[in-house]
Each structure stands twice: as structure tokens, then as C-alpha cells.
Write a structure and sequence with these properties.
heterodimer; A: alpha/beta; Rossmann fold; 7-stranded mixed sheet; 4-stranded antiparallel sheet; globular; disordered N terminus; B: mainly alpha; MetI-like fold; 16 helices; 3 strands; 64% helix; 5% strand
Chain lengths: 287, 428
């Protein structure tokens, strides 16, 4: 683990939060060890959109069986970083990713790694619930079907039921599996999308602000679900809500202006931030 | 400065006045809209009304049934087609009416003009089927000639001076007598739908053109829809964005605006002169119309693909679907209603297109009904064009009738396509 010995926590005197000398500084890494073994290791990851750099040399270890929250103001690069982990940035024309991202020690950007197979191992949940305009059953069955994971209808039935149960949606939809998934409420749709993602038994689940379009009750259900899913998966969640990051995550990484500023145990970050910008952000002074 | 301050009363007054103006403006705008729709509907009704008024008479016709004594001296037993049945019938009819012919046989000729040439074929067919009828009197039914038919429909008036109408006073007198003696019957003109084109209006039908148009559209649909949708899919979903793609896009947009006669020239040069495909055939017609329909289909398909929310594509890609799976499982099915609409519009255009058909020989007189893609055929719009140019008056009502058939064809086609689109939309 890297220690940041160069900078003591800043005082709380006023002034612009993002001072230039701070920009190039290496991130603060809190001392406590990871909660699980490292699942994904990012090293010096930079992302360019048509030549414009959106992410600067991010190095971050993401532990398994843990919820890691990526926080930071809008446009700070946290979603961009999230999308490097399942190579969704490949689909954006003019996007270039440099650096190294290892999953279980294997470089996911290597030529030998097929993005299609990678995405079967790394599921993703988006900000806006985006179920396919198909039935609930078909939504969940889609992944196993295209990856050839279930070969018979009976196997598929089992996978669909198990996934919906794990996503906490089974009881609500068991009697209408063959009605359209888009007819569900926003929170149900988001859980359907989670069920769809876990139906292919991924190892990592990436969540890009999964609750920002939901009401507090639906949000609470999703957070509960995330907490349950942690036992089986490595979860990375991008969130704008400090409270949510504090509630669901064990690890937190704070991004600002395309750089990783501070990372460590969530409790540490929230109770004892060492970077002024982190403090300012979590106390709501900017962002 | 105090003069410029606005009191609350003045503010309220101004707001009220402004509100009144805004509502008045909205009211005016709605009125313009209603007027525009009214004018459009009015013209449409006028057009349709005029066509129906002109064309409805073509849907019924008159048949004359005359007893014919199959005179053994004149009917050729071995080759009944060679018999001059028309003269035979005319003379017998004159005799029955007690009219003596003159030396040149002008009256018989005038009488002949009241029957369609179909009479000859009907009589010959009876004899050929049963030669024992020779020597007997057989009732033979045949369409009235186009002029006689027009007279029965009231289109030839006795008020017109005799030298300006197609039937003489004497002929009209004969027709009246035949009608009162019950030889003339009016009935639905089924021949219009069961015959090909003919130089005789009373024998001309639209079947050849309908079959030709249908075959042509089949060719067009089978070529233009898969090609157009495929091209649009590639351009929209797979092609790398760049100068070449932009160039192709601009060219496709321009092609959609190229006058259709140019496509006819291209078809003539490419398919007939170079590939030596048969002239005036549904194959060539369909190929030319497919070229014409392609840009429209590509543009419509691309815009409906663009309208599919990117979140669906992202969802599929994030699930590990390949690009092709994403396109065929999600994007294309969601874009299908738009694709179908584009296809319907371009097919409807293709159906009504006349100019390119001029150049590939489809406006020549083709009486047959095509049985294959390589046989010469007419098409509905070119039939309208040919009939409109025909000198016989009886073709006027038939032109309008052909237009009505064309419109009905279009409505049936669109209804079928809309039905299919609904099915697609409901499927999840």
C-alpha cells in the first residue's frame, strides 16, 4: 500500500479549494488494508476523449467482496473511470485509454481479451433504468441466452428465478414474468436491471449512479440489495450522494478534475479526510 | 425617474392587455391551421369526386344478346374463326328489324359497328365447341361496341348534331329498338378486371397492368428493402465515422432528390443495353424502381435507427452482447416501425412512378397478361398514361377507372403494411 507521507492534512483556512500545486500531487491513500483481496488493480489509467484528457493517471486497487464508492463533483472522471473497467469506453468513437487495468492479475485491455467476454464477467447498471423493451423474463434471460450459459428452457427458468430472487424482485413480479419490463416502476426497473446483470454470474458489478433517478424508498431498497450482493461480488458504485457512499460502501475514492485525490476506508475518508478538497466536498462546500 | 416607475395597477393592466393579444394570436393561428386543412381536404375531395364521377360508369357495361342462325352456307365448319360472323349477325339483325340494306351494304356495316369484335370470337368458340350447332339458331352474347355502350350510358346525346357524333340517327334508332326488345342487358363490367389492355375500349381491362405492377413491386421490395436496410444498418451502426462515410451520406441524400426519369435512363443503359434483360419486363421495371426506392429507404431507416435510445444499446453492450447482437436483438427491432414506414412510403412512390417506365418500354401497347418476370408487361400508371392519350371516348371513363384501381391498389398495399407494422409494434 502506498502511503502519502508528503502532505499533512491541510488547515481549514479559506481559499480556492483546487489550488494548482495540489493538482499534480499523488493521491492520499489511507493506511488501512483492503477489505478483501484486490480484484481490480488500475495503474496510471488516463482517458482521452478526442485528444482531450478526462482522466489523469489514476491508480486504484479495488478489493473483492467489497463495495467501493467513487465520489466527486460532476465531470470529475468517476464515471469515465468506471467505464474503463468493462471497456465500455471502447464504444465511444475517439476515446483512448492508456495505462494498465488488471483484473485478477490479467490485463483487461490486452489484445487477447475480448470485450464481449469481459463484459460477461463485469456487469454494469446505469443511472437511468434501461430494461429492454421485452418481458421481465426475457430481460433476465437475455444474458444467459447470448452467452450460451443456459441451454434449456428449464435451466433458463432456474436462472431467471434465482436472479430475480437475489435482486429482491421475485415476489413482486413472479405472477407477471411475461409482461413488459418497461411497465415496472423506476425502482423495480432498476432491480430488474440488476437481476439482468447478475443472471450471467459476473464477478464485478459496476453501478453508475444507480439511485439518482429513484425516490428515497426505492433507493433504500437498492442500497439494501447492494449490501446483500457484496457477499458475492466486487461492487463499484459511482454516486453523487455522500450519504449513500457512507451507507453502502466500505471503501471510497474521491475524484476531482480527472484525478484521484484520496482513497481509503469509507469511515476514514468521511471522518478524517486528509485532503482539503475531500473535506470541502464531503462537507458540501463545493461540488 | 419617478415617471418611469410602473404602478401595480399599470402592471396588471399591461398583463391583461398582453394576455388578450396572446390569446388572439393563438386563435388566429388555429384558424389558419383549420383553413389549411380545409383547403387540403377540399382539393382532395374535389379530385377524388371528379375521378369517381368520370370513372364510375366504366364499372358497368352493356351486353347484347342476339339469336344467330348458324347458316351452313357461311359458317366454316373446319375453321369457324375464319367466318365473318359480324357481317352474318348484322345482316340477320337488319332482316329481323325489317330494314333493307342498300347496294353497298352500308347499313350492315353500320349495324356491325354496334357490336364488339368480341362477337366473332364468342360465336366461333361456340361452333368450335359444338360443330353440330351449325344449321341451328343460337343466342350469342357479346359486349356492345364502345359507342353503343356510351349511348346506353347516356353519354351520347341526340342533341348533338348528327355529323358530330359517332352514331347516326339510324343507329340510335336501332339501339333503342334492340333495347326495348330486351336484347340489351347492363351488368357489372367484370372484363375490366379480367382482361389485359386492348385497342377496343369495351374489351380493355386492367388485369395485365395490375399483375405487371404487382410483379414489379415484388421485385422492388425484395431488392430495395433488404439492401436499403442493410446499407443503413452498416452506415449507422458499423461504419467508422469519417470523410468517406460523410461523402456517402451526402450522396445518398442527393440520390433521393434525383428526378425519377434519370433512373429510367440508368435502367435503360444498365439493365437493357448492357445486361440485356428483357425490355418492358417486370424484372427491369422492378430493378429501376428499386434503385429509386433505395435512398428513401436508407434515409428513413437511418433516422429511425438514430431515434433508438442509446441507453438500450449501452444496456445490451454492457450485458456482453456483441455489436451484431445488439443491432439485431435490440436496435433494429425497436427501429422496425420507422423502417416499415419508410418502406411503405417508397413502395407507394414506386407504384405510382411513371417516368422511368417510359424509358424501359413500359408505355407500349401490351395486351397480354404477364406470367413471369421476363415477359413484357404494362403497369398501372403507364396504363393510365396510355388510355388518357387514346382517341376513343370510351377510354376516358376507363382512364378514371384505372386511376381508381391504382388508388385502391395503393390503399390495399398501405393497409397491409400498416397491419404488419402494428404486429411488429406489439411484439415485445
Amino acid at each position: 500500500m502506498k502511503f502519502n507521507l508528503f502532505r499533512a492534512p491541510d488547515g481549514v483556512e479559506g481559499g480556492a479549494p483546487a489550488e494548482t500545486p495540489l493538482m499534480a500531487a499523488p493521491p492520499v491513500v489511507h493506511s488501512s488494508g483492503p477489505v478483501g483481496p484486490t480484484k481490480i488493480a488500475a495503474r496510471d489509467v488516463s482517458v482521452f476523449y478526442s485528444g482531450k484528457q478526462a482522466l489523469h493517471d489514476v491508480s486504484l486497487d479495488i478489493p473483492d467482496k467489497t463495495v467501493t464508492a467513487l465520489i466527486g463533483p460532476s465531470g470529475c472522471g468517476k464515471s469515465t473511470f468506471l467505464r474503463t473497467m468493462n471497456r465500455m469506453n471502447d464504444t465511444i468513437p475517439g476515446c483512448k485509454v492508456t495505462g494498465r487495468i488488471e483484473m485478477d492479475g490479467e490485463d483487461i485491455n490486452a489484445k487477447s481479451v475480448d470485450p464481449v467476454l469481459l463484459r460477461a464477467r463485469v456487469g454494469m447498471v446505469f443511472q437511468k433504468p434501461n430494461p429492454f423493451p421485452k418481458t421481465i423474463y426475457e430481460n433476465v434471460a437475455y444474458g444467459p441466452r447470448i452467452h450460451g450459459l443456459a441451454t434449456s428452457r428449464a435451466e433458463l427458468d432456474v436462472v431467471v428465478e434465482a436472479s430475480l430472487k437475489r435482486a429482491g424482485l421475485w415476489e413482486e413480479v413472479a405472477d407477471r414474468l411475461h409482461s413488459p419490463g418497461t411497465g415496472l416502476s423506476g425502482g423495480q426497473q432498476q432491480r430488474l436491471v440488476i437481476a439482468r446483470a447478475i443472471a450471467v454470474e459476473p464477478e464485478v458489478i459496476l453501478m453508475d449512479e444507480p439511485c439518482s433517478a429513484l425516490d428515497p424508498i426505492a433507493t433504500a431498497k437498492i442500497e439494501e440489495l447492494i449490501d446483500e450482493l457484496r457477499e458475492r461480488y466486487c461492487i463499484v458504485i459511482v454516486t453523487h450522494s455522500m450519504a449513500q457512499a457512507a451507507r453502502v460502501s466500505q471503501r471510497t475514492a474521491f475524484f476531482h478534475m480527472g484525478r484521484l485525490i484520496e482513497t481509503g476506508d469509507t469511515e476514514d475518508i468521511f471522518t478524517n479526510p486528509r485532503e482539503r478538497r475531500t473535506l470541502d466536498y464531503i462537507t458540501g462546500r463545493f461540488g | 425617474m419617478t415617471d418611469a416607475t410602473v404602478t401595480p395597477e399599470v402592471r396588471a393592466e399591461r398583463l391583461r392587455a398582453g394576455l388578450k393579444r396572446r390569446y388572439a394570436r393563438e386563435g388566429r393561428f388555429r384558424l389558419y391551421g383549420l383553413l389549411a386543412i380545409g383547403v387540403a381536404v377540399g382539393f382532395l375531395l374535389l379530385l377524388l369526386g371528379r375521378i369517381i364521377e368520370q370513372g364510375h360508369t366504366a364499372f358497368y357495361t352493356h351486353t347484347v344478346t342476339v339469336p344467330v342462325y348458324m347458316d351452313p352456307a357461311r359458317v366454316d365448319r373446319a375453321y369457324p374463326q375464319g367466318t365473318n360472323f359480324e357481317l352474318l349477325v348484322a345482316e340477320q339483325q337488319l332482316a329481323r328489324m325489317g330494314v333493307a340494306d342498300d347496294a353497298q351494304g352500308l347499313k350492315a356495316a353500320a349495324m356491325r359497328g354496334l357490336f364488339s369484335s368480341e362477337l366473332k370470337f364468342a360465336a366461333a368458340a361456340r361452333i368450335q365447341a359444338n360443330p353440330n350447332l351449325i344449321g341451328q339458331t343460337v343466342p350469342i352474347a357479346a359486349p356492345a361496341s364502345d359507342d353503343a355502350d356510351l349511348y346506353f350510358k347516356g353519354e351520347i346525346s341526340l342533341d348533338t348534331p348528327a355529323d358530330q357524333r359517332r352514331l347516326s340517327d339510324e343507329q340510335i334508332g336501332w339501339l333503342d329498338r334492340m333495347k326495348t326488345s330486351g336484347l340489351v342487358a347492363a351488368h357489372f363490367n367484370s372484363g375490366l378486371f379480367t382482361r389485359g389492355d386492348s385497342t377496343e375500349p369495351e374489351l380493355a381491362g386492367v388485369l395485365g397492368a395490375v399483375v405487371g405492377s404487382a410483379l414489379m413491386l415484388l421485385v422492388t421490395a425484395f431488392i430495395a428493402i433488404p439492401l436499403g436496410v442493410g446499407a443503413a444498418l452498416y452506415l449507422e451502426e458499423f461504419a467508422p465515422r469519417g470523410r468517406i462515410t460523410d461523402l456517402i451520406e451526402v450522396n445518398i441524400n442527393n440520390l433521393a432528390a434525383v428526378p425519377s426519369i434519370i433512373y429510367g435512363l440508368l435502367g435503360l443503359a444498365l439493365f437493357i443495353n448492357w445486361m440485356h434483360l428483357p425490355r418492358a419486363s417486370p424484372l427491369v421495371g422492378g430493378l429501376v424502381l428499386a434503385l429509386m426506392a433505395l435512398p428513401t429507404i436508407i434515409i428513413a431507416t437511418r433516422s429511425s435507427l438514430k431515434a433508438v435510445p442509446p441507453s438500450i444499446r449501452e444496456a445490451a453492450l454492457a450485458m456482453g452482447a456483441s455489436k451484431t447482437q445488439t443491432v439485431f436483438h435490440h436496435t433494429l427491432p425497436l427501429a422496425m416501425p420507422g423502417v416499415m414506414t419508410g418502406a411503405i412510403i417508397s413502395m407507394a412512390h414506386a407504384l405510382g412512378e411513371t417516368a422511368p417506365l417510359l424509358l424501359i418500354g413500359m408505355v407500349s401497347f401490351i395486351p397480354g397478361i404477364p406470367h413471369g418476370l421476363g415477359e413484357p408487361t404494362g403497369a398501372l400508371p403507364s396504363l393510365v398514361y396510355i388510355w388518357e392519350n387514346a382517341s376513343e371516348r370510351a377510354f376516358h371513363e376507363r382512364t378514371a377507372a384505372a386511376i381508381l384501381v391504382l388508388l385502391a391498389f395503393m390503399i390495399v398495399m398501405n393497409a397491409a403494411a400498416i397491419f404488419l407494422r402494428r404486429r411488429f409494434e406489439r411484439r415485445w
